[in-house]
Automatic annotation (TrEMBL):
The keyword Transport does not apply. It comes from Lates japonicus (Japanese lates). Residues 1-20 form the signal peptide. PANTHER family: MANNOSE-6-PHOSPHATE RECEPTOR FAMILY MEMBER (PTHR15071), MRH DOMAIN-CONTAINING PROTEIN (PTHR15071:SF34). The keyword Phosphoprotein does not apply. InterPro entries: Autophagy-rel_prot_27. It is found in: Membrane. Pfam families: ATG27. One of its GO terms (cellular component) is membrane. This is Uncharacterized protein. It is a single-pass membrane protein. Keywords: Membrane, Signal, Transmembrane, Transmembrane helix. It comes from the Eukaryota.
Length: 264
């Protein structure tokens, strides 16, 4: 075997070994969004959280009684869409139709007949069991909402648009062959853009309570004195420590003023 052949063989082996040790591109593995609950998903690449709760208005709606164009509809009929990305809602009981309670999307078909409107509610999906699919190339989160069938009734495409100030429905399409499709432009579809939407009053209260309790136990550990009693070892507050802290806080400022006065 010649020297050139040996060197060629070693170079091939070294390149194969180094390629096996070198980190492979994991974009295909880490792309996507991991569903946490019906309103939130975490990006697999660690870029942040997408929160659907922050997209709705005060009532939770992203579109409420919004007109939708439909195929093969009579001239005396109109279709209105109501959609909530996170908060379930129910339609009034006086509307005809079944299954319009605790839903994510519904269509209200309104007929004008005999000088009055006849409205019918059609459920178009619920939050429970919805599925998340993220397209990293288009920066779009697609969420499918189901009812009782395996096929989704509504598919909403949330597109990340940081230049958009609010979440708006850009387009919707309703046909008899496909599910209802809604395209949304929202800054909250970008990872970590609207994470503060999860902080409610209860969460803020718990944070303040936890910090206060931690501060109390840390400072109170210096002010508790153990003593023995008939019931065992107990601890009681050391009043002198708290009084000393209050005394130092009240006397520190006048002392500095007196020192400055003497210096002058």
């Amino acid at each position: 075997m010649s020297l050139q052949t040996v060197l060629l063989t070693l170079s091939v082996c070294f390149s194969t070994f180094s390629s096996s040790l070198s980190p492979r591109p994991s974009s295909a593995k880490k792309s996507g969004c991991f569903k946490v609950n019906t309103c939130k998903c975490i990006m697999k690449d660690g870029s942040g959280v997408i929160n659907l709760k922050a997209m709705g208005d005060a009532g939770g709606f992203l579109g409420h009684l919004k007109p939708v164009s439909a195929e093969n509809m009579p001239a005396n009929a109109e279709v209105l869409l109501s959609f909530s990305p996170c908060q379930p809602f129910s339609q009034p009981e006086d509307l005809t139709g079944a299954g319009c309670t605790n839903i994510a999307a519904c269509l209200i078909v309104r007929y004008h007949r005999l000088d009055r409107y006849i409205s019918r509610c059609i459920s178009y999906g619920r939050h429970e069991g919805n599925e998340f699919h993220y397209n990293d190339t288009q920066k779009t989160l697609s969420v499918s909402y189901f009812a009782q069938d395996e096929q989704p009734l509504t598919v909403v495409h949330y597109h990340c648009n940081p230049n958009q100030s609010t979440s708006v429905i850009r387009d919707q399409r309703l046909s008899t062959q496909e599910p209802l499709r809604i395209w949304v432009e929202s800054p909250c579809a970008c990872p970590n853009a609207c994470t503060m939407g999860d902080l409610g009053l209860g969460t803020i209260f718990l944070i303040i309570l936890s910090l206060s309790a931690a501060a109390y136990f840390i400072l109170g550990s210096c002010a508790l004195r153990p003593f023995r009693s008939s019931n065992g070892v107990q601890i009681s507050p050391e009043h002198s420590v708290w009084c000393m802290i209050c005394y130092l806080c009240t006397e520190r400022r006048p002392a500095r003023q007196h020192y400055r006065h003497d210096a002058l």
